[in-house]
Amino acid sequence: MYKKMAALGLALCSLLSVAVADVAAGSRWDTRQLIIRLQDDGLRRIQALQPRQPLPDLRLPDGRPLTLLRRFDGNGVVVRLPESVSLEEAQRLADQLVADPVVAAAQPDKRLYPALIPSDPRFLPDPSDPVFPLGQWNLFEDTAGIRVTSAWDRTTGSAATVIAVLDTGIVDHIDLDSTRVLAGYDFISDSWTANDGDGRDPDPTDPGDGTADGDCGAGIPGEADSWHGLAVTGVAVAQSDNGIGIAGIDFRARLLPVRVLGRCGGDVSDVVAAIRWAAGLPVAGAPSNPTPADVINLSLSGTGSCSAEEQAAIDDAYNAGALVVVAAGNEGVDVTNISPANCDHVVAVGAIARDGSRAPYSNVGAAVDLSAPGGDGSNSDAGGVLTLWKQGTVTPATSYASIAGTSFAAAQVSAAAALMRAVDPSLPPATLAELLRRTARSFPDASCTTSSCGAGVLDVDYALAGAADPTAILGSRVNSGGGCTLGAAGGRFDPLWLLFALALVGYRARKRRHSSPC
Ligand SMILES: [Ca+2]
Ligand SMILES: [Ca+2]
Ligand SMILES: [Ca+2]
Description:
Helix 6 packs parallel to helix 9, helix 7 runs parallel beside helix 8 and helix 9 packs parallel to helix 11. The strands form four sheets. This protein has a seven-stranded parallel sheet, with helices on both faces. The longest helix is centred in the last third of the chain and has 18 residues. The chain is α/β, with parallel strands linked by helices. It binds calcium ion (3 copies).
């Protein structure tokens, strides 16, 4: 609303006392225009004025004029400044103008932009798509989405940010920018588990983790390759706005692929080494990591209490400045007995379904920090999380899949944390974690409460606002989170994934609405 001033019938004779600042390069919020509402007398004075003529008597301190661009409605005019200024500077100039009795109101003619909709053809819903009609619903739907499109108006990320994905490794994909993929490391010591012919090595490429019946224990059926690391990675950093496939949540962060899971899962001893290495800490036998992670994503779980070795490694990473994000797990049980989600100094992430209800597989309990959409895991609902996939032996991979699980909920929180670090690289893990909790929005369905599914549903837009001004959200208090019972080290981790409807397609079959290859 415009502030009304008393009309004193004076001419537009004020000189502005605020200089127009030189703004080099500028931002997209800069403006060169003001909207001015005039009192009647002022309006009369410019009645005969033509566009691009200077307003009579109204000048900047250095003598430069304000020129008329056009009449606005009623008593309004849009005027042009001699040069673009920041929005803040424009506001100061407008405030000065309001002090003139013939000016009823003034404000910057600020620029507005559409909420970013990336060009990736699978981002938006497409009812004609028989396989993925919902697009990336988890990023934008009102009920269970994480409000990414408005968040992207704040930042789309920074190349200075590093997300470590500790998982089955990485494979090339047409919708993954290889220049954003750091060298990483393969921490799997056992060569059979690793399936790459040796123990630890510098190549985190995922050779597949498929098994035959009985490989993982008597009576346990074999499984196809999971490509779990690729799928988790795609949620966070698939190449965005490139006209191909899906959009990753972070457009610019670099990926640090760290291999810890292979056939039949992985060992705690390898995972804890990888956590320290990802955080930039020394690990015997491995080269130093020149790109310590801002965020470490652990979409893996095992049973039991948080072991001493897990907690120690997580504490080391936390103290080194890395936020450790952990999937709550897919067993549908209380997370108290699921590690490392039950460890201290982690952000444990549960999953909700597309309708906002608790995902039936998601672990729950007081140790869950917040939830994010992970799909409901049923075959009757296409509402899994759309992400990258590999099918067959084609390289780079070209496929996409709709997958459910807390793995993919966690990946969304990791990407959100990376965007927060892009807003402010100095935010420590405790602040990131508390902001994620405190900016989460209320659960849309009574099946999730703050005692079962964490503080709420991930709200990336609000989290980024919090990152820009933490004290507005937190005051001076930063809480580092809950406790953990220490126990014996050991056990193996399983990747968390539920693939349903086998929603896989090769890219050649996907040419439809766009000229892009998928
Ligand atoms: Ca190896
Ligand atoms: Ca390897
Ligand atoms: Ca893409």
